[in-house]
Amino acid sequence: MWRLRSRWRYLVCLQIVGSFCLAAYVLGTTKHTREEEATPITVNRGLGSTEHHIFKAVGGAEPPTQNNKLQTSTVDTVFQQLPDVERGNDPSPVTVKLSSRKQLGLINARQFAVESGSLDVPLGGKWRPPTTDQSVSSEKIAVLVPYRDREEHLKTFLSYIHPFLQRQGRHYGIYVVEQHGDEPLFCKGLLFNIAFNAALDDDDYDCFIFHDVDLIPEDDRNLYTCRESPRHLSVAINKFNYTLPYEQLFGGVTALKTSHYKQLNGYSNLFCGWGGEDDDMFKRLYRHKLRVSRPDKDVARYKMLRHSQTPLNPARYSLLKTSMKRASEDGLSSLETMGYQITSTSRKRYFSHILVNIADRNVRRVLRRLPRHVKRV
């Protein structure tokens, strides 16, 4: 009995001591948390924005916290030292002029009518750095954006891409190629080829950026420029949890030299609807032994604007089987046989507009126009 009472007293004492320790730990943690809350924290975000609600307006998770060395001074070196990537190095630092802190964040599409008045963009969406600084590249860049029925996306894209390119000191022009007509499916490859020729007729561009309207770059260090090899820029997209879905992907946002695009004969004209044209382009790169380079995934991050799924291309798998055979005869070289018509070309406030009428086109009917040896699978 004596031993039982002693053991019971020992357990009670142990419980009391444990309660005191737990109470002390809780009080210490609360005090530490309050001190942290009272200390201001300054974070430089990938978008250069200090307002989370602006970024969240386009949906998805919070923006990444990355120090991209953006300063509030009017002239600043944005890219101090860029990381070595797996398949090549980024170029030397670039000195750019920052217009205002207000422009450094993503603008909500609903605010575009108010905010866009502050964009420093000449008519037609063509801009060049107002400096003779030798550190600024003389490369002329055309950004091609295929478009149909996504007005809110286009407004958001334009409100962000102009300040983004200007902070990088790019000499650029924005070309929006819009599809209308009886064709129910969206023909992105055909639109890219049409816009490529139209842009070259307008100016002597050295580099072309092929850009989906629903992708917004998150980091200024993701340089919009061409390299010695074709470059895939949209490596990490929030929709895919910021990972590359597969190694052969070459879509979303890509950069090709003018000479490379001509060598590849452009995109295939036959893909209409979602899926296939990007994989077909990768096969063309493989055919010409052009290696794809990519920035580091921590830099090449994109936010995808919310949208409904585009109707699928019912013939994408059949067309991909003949990619290699069609490459030399389906693309820029066959545009005249594609049955489209450029309705108008005009210079809008923030972009050059190419309106294209595409008649209802049955893929089988288009395939019949190709040489017989190409149609064999």
Automatic annotation (TrEMBL):
It is a single-pass type II membrane protein. GO terms for cellular component: Golgi apparatus; membrane. Pfam families: Glyco_transf_7C (PF02709), Glyco_transf_7N (PF13733). Keywords: Glycoprotein, Glycosyltransferase, Membrane, Signal-anchor, Transferase, Transmembrane, Transmembrane helix. It is an enzyme of class 2 (transferase). Residues 231-307 form the Galactosyltransferase C-terminal domain. This is Beta-1,4-galactosyltransferase. It comes from Branchiostoma lanceolatum (Common lancelet). The lineage of its organism: Eukaryota, Metazoa, Chordata, Cephalochordata, Leptocardii. The gene is B4GALT1.
